[in-house]
Write a structure and sequence with these properties.
9 strands; 23% strand; GMP Synthetase, Chain A, domain 3; 39% helix; 2 domains; six-stranded mixed beta sheet; alpha/beta; single chain; Rossmann fold; 10 helices
Length: 295
Protein backbone atom coordinates (compact mmCIF):
# COMPACT_ATOMS: atom_id res chain seq x y z
CA UNK A 1 0.00 0.00 0.00
CA UNK A 2 1.34 3.42 -0.91
CA UNK A 3 1.91 6.00 1.78
CA UNK A 4 0.13 9.35 1.88
CA UNK A 5 1.16 12.58 3.54
CA UNK A 6 -0.16 16.13 3.54
CA UNK A 7 -0.89 19.34 5.42
CA UNK A 8 -4.32 20.31 6.73
CA UNK A 9 -4.81 23.93 7.84
CA UNK A 10 -7.40 24.46 10.59
CA UNK A 11 -9.06 27.86 10.29
CA UNK A 12 -11.86 29.57 12.15
CA UNK A 13 -13.04 32.43 14.29
CA UNK A 14 -11.56 32.64 17.83
CA UNK A 15 -12.95 29.95 20.14
CA UNK A 16 -14.23 27.78 17.29
CA UNK A 17 -12.41 24.84 18.91
CA UNK A 18 -9.38 24.43 16.63
CA UNK A 19 -6.92 23.71 19.45
CA UNK A 20 -9.29 21.25 21.13
CA UNK A 21 -9.74 19.44 17.83
CA UNK A 22 -5.98 19.32 17.27
CA UNK A 23 -5.31 17.89 20.73
CA UNK A 24 -8.04 15.28 20.35
CA UNK A 25 -6.70 14.25 16.95
CA UNK A 26 -3.14 13.87 18.24
CA UNK A 27 -4.19 12.25 21.51
CA UNK A 28 -2.34 14.64 23.82
CA UNK A 29 -1.94 18.36 24.41
CA UNK A 30 0.20 20.05 21.77
CA UNK A 31 -1.76 23.33 21.64
CA UNK A 32 -2.92 25.28 24.69
CA UNK A 33 -6.64 25.69 25.30
CA UNK A 34 -8.44 28.34 27.36
CA UNK A 35 -12.02 29.66 27.47
CA UNK A 36 -10.77 33.05 26.23
CA UNK A 37 -10.63 34.03 22.58
CA UNK A 38 -7.42 34.46 20.56
CA UNK A 39 -5.39 32.05 22.69
CA UNK A 40 -3.40 30.63 19.77
CA UNK A 41 -0.77 33.11 18.53
CA UNK A 42 1.21 31.08 16.04
CA UNK A 43 0.91 27.98 13.95
CA UNK A 44 1.04 24.77 16.00
CA UNK A 45 1.49 21.46 14.24
CA UNK A 46 0.07 18.11 15.28
CA UNK A 47 1.04 14.88 13.49
CA UNK A 48 -1.54 12.09 13.15
CA UNK A 49 -1.16 8.63 11.61
CA UNK A 50 -4.23 7.01 10.03
CA UNK A 51 -3.16 3.72 8.50
CA UNK A 52 -0.54 4.55 5.86
CA UNK A 53 -1.52 8.24 5.84
CA UNK A 54 0.33 10.91 7.80
CA UNK A 55 -1.82 13.98 8.44
CA UNK A 56 0.02 17.13 9.48
CA UNK A 57 -2.60 19.31 11.16
CA UNK A 58 -1.81 23.01 11.50
CA UNK A 59 -3.67 24.92 14.22
CA UNK A 60 -3.73 28.59 13.23
CA UNK A 61 -4.54 31.84 15.05
CA UNK A 62 -8.23 32.75 15.00
CA UNK A 63 -9.57 34.96 12.23
CA UNK A 64 -10.59 38.32 13.70
CA UNK A 65 -10.38 42.03 12.93
CA UNK A 66 -6.74 42.98 13.70
CA UNK A 67 -5.78 46.17 15.54
CA UNK A 68 -2.16 45.79 16.64
CA UNK A 69 0.84 44.71 14.60
CA UNK A 70 0.75 41.44 16.53
CA UNK A 71 -2.89 40.94 15.52
CA UNK A 72 -2.12 41.55 11.85
CA UNK A 73 0.78 39.09 11.96
CA UNK A 74 -1.43 36.44 13.59
CA UNK A 75 -4.17 36.71 10.96
CA UNK A 76 -1.59 36.75 8.15
CA UNK A 77 -0.04 33.60 9.63
CA UNK A 78 -3.39 31.83 9.46
CA UNK A 79 -3.89 32.60 5.77
CA UNK A 80 -0.27 31.71 4.96
CA UNK A 81 -0.97 28.25 6.38
CA UNK A 82 -3.74 27.80 3.80
CA UNK A 83 -1.34 28.66 0.97
CA UNK A 84 0.92 25.76 1.94
CA UNK A 85 -1.82 23.24 2.75
CA UNK A 86 -3.20 20.34 0.77
CA UNK A 87 -6.56 20.83 2.48
CA UNK A 88 -8.07 23.74 4.42
CA UNK A 89 -10.77 23.12 7.03
CA UNK A 90 -12.96 25.93 8.35
CA UNK A 91 -14.13 25.20 11.90
CA UNK A 92 -17.37 26.85 12.96
CA UNK A 93 -18.88 26.91 16.44
CA UNK A 94 -22.30 25.57 15.48
CA UNK A 95 -23.94 26.85 18.66
CA UNK A 96 -22.83 30.47 18.13
CA UNK A 97 -22.64 30.52 14.33
CA UNK A 98 -23.58 33.80 12.69
CA UNK A 99 -23.71 33.48 8.89
CA UNK A 100 -23.29 37.23 8.42
CA UNK A 101 -20.13 37.22 10.56
CA UNK A 102 -18.76 34.23 8.65
CA UNK A 103 -19.45 35.55 5.14
CA UNK A 104 -16.08 37.31 4.76
CA UNK A 105 -13.78 34.43 5.83
CA UNK A 106 -15.87 31.90 3.90
CA UNK A 107 -15.54 33.96 0.73
CA UNK A 108 -11.82 34.51 1.31
CA UNK A 109 -11.27 30.78 1.79
CA UNK A 110 -13.23 29.92 -1.36
CA UNK A 111 -11.10 32.40 -3.31
CA UNK A 112 -7.83 30.71 -2.30
CA UNK A 113 -8.49 27.93 -4.80
CA UNK A 114 -7.54 25.31 -2.19
CA UNK A 115 -9.68 22.28 -1.54
CA UNK A 116 -11.68 23.19 1.55
CA UNK A 117 -14.00 21.43 3.97
CA UNK A 118 -16.43 22.74 6.57
CA UNK A 119 -16.31 21.33 10.11
CA UNK A 120 -19.24 22.24 12.34
CA UNK A 121 -18.04 21.89 15.93
CA UNK A 122 -19.91 21.78 19.27
CA UNK A 123 -22.88 20.05 17.62
CA UNK A 124 -23.88 18.59 21.00
CA UNK A 125 -25.06 22.09 21.99
CA UNK A 126 -27.44 22.55 19.06
CA UNK A 127 -30.73 20.83 18.25
CA UNK A 128 -30.62 18.66 15.11
CA UNK A 129 -33.47 20.57 13.47
CA UNK A 130 -31.31 23.71 13.63
CA UNK A 131 -28.03 21.99 12.80
CA UNK A 132 -28.95 20.59 9.37
CA UNK A 133 -30.22 23.89 7.90
CA UNK A 134 -27.11 25.63 9.26
CA UNK A 135 -24.83 23.05 7.65
CA UNK A 136 -26.66 23.44 4.33
CA UNK A 137 -26.50 27.26 4.42
CA UNK A 138 -22.80 27.49 5.33
CA UNK A 139 -21.92 24.69 2.92
CA UNK A 140 -23.42 26.64 0.04
CA UNK A 141 -21.96 29.98 1.20
CA UNK A 142 -18.42 28.62 1.24
CA UNK A 143 -18.64 26.19 -1.66
CA UNK A 144 -17.33 23.37 0.54
CA UNK A 145 -16.76 19.98 -1.04
CA UNK A 146 -17.37 18.17 2.28
CA UNK A 147 -19.20 19.02 5.52
CA UNK A 148 -18.45 17.27 8.82
CA UNK A 149 -20.20 17.57 12.17
CA UNK A 150 -18.21 16.97 15.35
CA UNK A 151 -17.97 17.68 19.04
CA UNK A 152 -14.23 18.05 19.52
CA UNK A 153 -14.53 18.24 23.31
CA UNK A 154 -16.39 14.92 23.45
CA UNK A 155 -14.45 13.44 20.50
CA UNK A 156 -17.70 12.71 18.66
CA UNK A 157 -17.10 12.43 14.92
CA UNK A 158 -13.32 12.92 15.20
CA UNK A 159 -12.34 9.44 14.03
CA UNK A 160 -14.55 9.64 10.93
CA UNK A 161 -13.11 13.08 10.16
CA UNK A 162 -9.52 11.83 10.48
CA UNK A 163 -10.24 8.80 8.29
CA UNK A 164 -11.57 11.13 5.59
CA UNK A 165 -8.54 13.40 5.93
CA UNK A 166 -6.17 10.45 5.66
CA UNK A 167 -7.84 9.28 2.44
CA UNK A 168 -7.69 12.83 1.04
CA UNK A 169 -3.94 13.28 1.52
CA UNK A 170 -1.78 13.08 -1.61
CA UNK A 171 0.42 10.07 -2.19
CA UNK A 172 3.97 10.60 -0.98
CA UNK A 173 6.52 9.74 1.71
CA UNK A 174 5.92 10.59 5.34
CA UNK A 175 7.69 13.75 6.49
CA UNK A 176 8.02 12.80 10.17
CA UNK A 177 8.84 9.61 12.08
CA UNK A 178 5.63 7.68 12.91
CA UNK A 179 5.89 8.33 16.67
CA UNK A 180 6.29 12.13 16.37
CA UNK A 181 3.28 14.09 17.64
CA UNK A 182 4.32 17.69 16.92
CA UNK A 183 7.13 19.80 15.55
CA UNK A 184 7.01 22.01 18.65
CA UNK A 185 10.21 21.97 20.69
CA UNK A 186 10.17 21.48 24.45
CA UNK A 187 11.27 25.12 24.79
CA UNK A 188 8.20 26.27 22.88
CA UNK A 189 5.94 23.99 24.90
CA UNK A 190 7.29 25.39 28.18
CA UNK A 191 6.58 28.98 27.13
CA UNK A 192 3.10 28.11 25.89
CA UNK A 193 2.10 26.27 29.07
CA UNK A 194 3.13 29.28 31.16
CA UNK A 195 1.12 31.54 28.84
CA UNK A 196 -1.86 29.20 29.17
CA UNK A 197 -1.82 29.71 32.94
CA UNK A 198 -1.65 33.49 32.49
CA UNK A 199 -4.88 33.22 30.48
CA UNK A 200 -6.51 31.02 33.11
CA UNK A 201 -5.43 32.95 36.20
CA UNK A 202 -5.50 36.66 35.31
CA UNK A 203 -8.04 39.25 34.27
CA UNK A 204 -9.20 39.75 30.69
CA UNK A 205 -6.72 42.42 29.60
CA UNK A 206 -3.56 40.83 31.02
CA UNK A 207 -3.08 37.75 28.76
CA UNK A 208 -3.30 39.79 25.57
CA UNK A 209 -0.59 42.15 26.80
CA UNK A 210 1.80 39.36 27.78
CA UNK A 211 4.37 37.31 25.89
CA UNK A 212 6.38 34.37 27.22
CA UNK A 213 9.82 33.26 26.07
CA UNK A 214 11.97 30.35 27.23
CA UNK A 215 15.41 31.73 28.04
CA UNK A 216 17.16 28.47 29.00
CA UNK A 217 16.31 24.77 28.88
CA UNK A 218 18.96 22.51 30.43
CA UNK A 219 18.95 18.73 30.80
CA UNK A 220 20.35 17.85 34.23
CA UNK A 221 22.36 14.77 35.14
CA UNK A 222 19.54 13.28 37.20
CA UNK A 223 17.25 13.30 34.14
CA UNK A 224 15.27 16.36 35.17
CA UNK A 225 15.11 19.67 33.30
CA UNK A 226 15.90 23.19 34.48
CA UNK A 227 13.83 25.76 32.60
CA UNK A 228 13.87 29.55 32.85
CA UNK A 229 11.15 31.59 31.18
CA UNK A 230 10.49 35.32 31.03
CA UNK A 231 7.03 36.85 30.94
CA UNK A 232 7.03 40.20 29.12
CA UNK A 233 4.08 42.49 29.81
CA UNK A 234 3.05 45.64 27.97
CA UNK A 235 2.47 47.74 31.10
CA UNK A 236 4.24 48.11 34.44
CA UNK A 237 0.91 47.71 36.25
CA UNK A 238 0.44 44.34 34.56
CA UNK A 239 3.71 43.14 36.09
CA UNK A 240 2.31 43.62 39.58
CA UNK A 241 -0.86 41.73 38.64
CA UNK A 242 1.16 38.82 37.23
CA UNK A 243 3.32 38.71 40.37
CA UNK A 244 0.38 38.97 42.78
CA UNK A 245 0.62 39.81 46.47
CA UNK A 246 3.93 38.51 47.78
CA UNK A 247 4.51 36.74 44.46
CA UNK A 248 1.51 34.46 45.08
CA UNK A 249 0.08 34.54 41.55
CA UNK A 250 3.33 33.93 39.67
CA UNK A 251 4.01 31.03 42.05
CA UNK A 252 0.61 29.57 41.18
CA UNK A 253 1.24 30.11 37.45
CA UNK A 254 4.60 28.37 37.77
CA UNK A 255 3.28 25.50 39.87
CA UNK A 256 0.46 24.59 37.50
CA UNK A 257 2.60 25.04 34.38
CA UNK A 258 5.32 22.86 35.93
CA UNK A 259 2.85 20.09 36.76
CA UNK A 260 1.58 20.10 33.17
CA UNK A 261 5.13 20.10 31.79
CA UNK A 262 6.11 17.16 33.96
CA UNK A 263 3.08 15.23 32.73
CA UNK A 264 3.84 15.93 29.07
CA UNK A 265 7.64 15.56 29.24
CA UNK A 266 7.42 12.60 31.63
CA UNK A 267 10.21 13.86 33.86
CA UNK A 268 10.83 16.21 36.76
CA UNK A 269 10.96 19.92 35.89
CA UNK A 270 12.51 22.84 37.77
CA UNK A 271 10.72 25.91 36.42
CA UNK A 272 11.85 29.48 37.14
CA UNK A 273 9.79 32.47 35.98
CA UNK A 274 10.92 36.09 35.59
CA UNK A 275 8.51 38.95 34.88
CA UNK A 276 9.57 42.10 33.00
CA UNK A 277 7.59 45.06 31.69
CA UNK A 278 8.39 45.92 28.08
CA UNK A 279 5.97 48.53 26.67
CA UNK A 280 5.28 48.09 22.97
CA UNK A 281 6.60 44.53 22.72
CA UNK A 282 3.61 43.65 20.51
CA UNK A 283 4.76 46.17 17.89
CA UNK A 284 8.41 45.01 17.75
CA UNK A 285 9.49 43.04 14.69
CA UNK A 286 12.13 41.13 16.65
CA UNK A 287 9.62 40.13 19.33
CA UNK A 288 7.11 38.96 16.73
CA UNK A 289 9.79 36.88 15.02
CA UNK A 290 10.56 35.28 18.38
CA UNK A 291 6.90 34.22 18.49
CA UNK A 292 7.26 32.59 15.07
CA UNK A 293 5.53 35.45 13.26
CA UNK A 294 7.05 37.57 10.53
CA UNK A 295 5.71 40.82 11.98
Amino acid sequence: MRTRCGYVALLGRPNAGKSTLLNQAVGTKVSIVTPKAQTTRFRVTGIVMRGQSQIILVDTPGLFAPRRRLDRAMVASAWESVAGADLACMLVDAFRANPDDLAEPLEALANTGRRHWLILNKIDLLLREKLLPLADMLGRMGGFSEVFMVSALKRDGIDSLLDAMGAAMPEGPHLYPPDDLTDQTDRMLAAELVREQIFLQTREEIPYGASVETETFKDLKDGSARIEVTIYVARAAHKMIILGEGGSRVKSIGSRARNELERLLERRVHLFIHVKDRPGWDEESARLRALGLDG
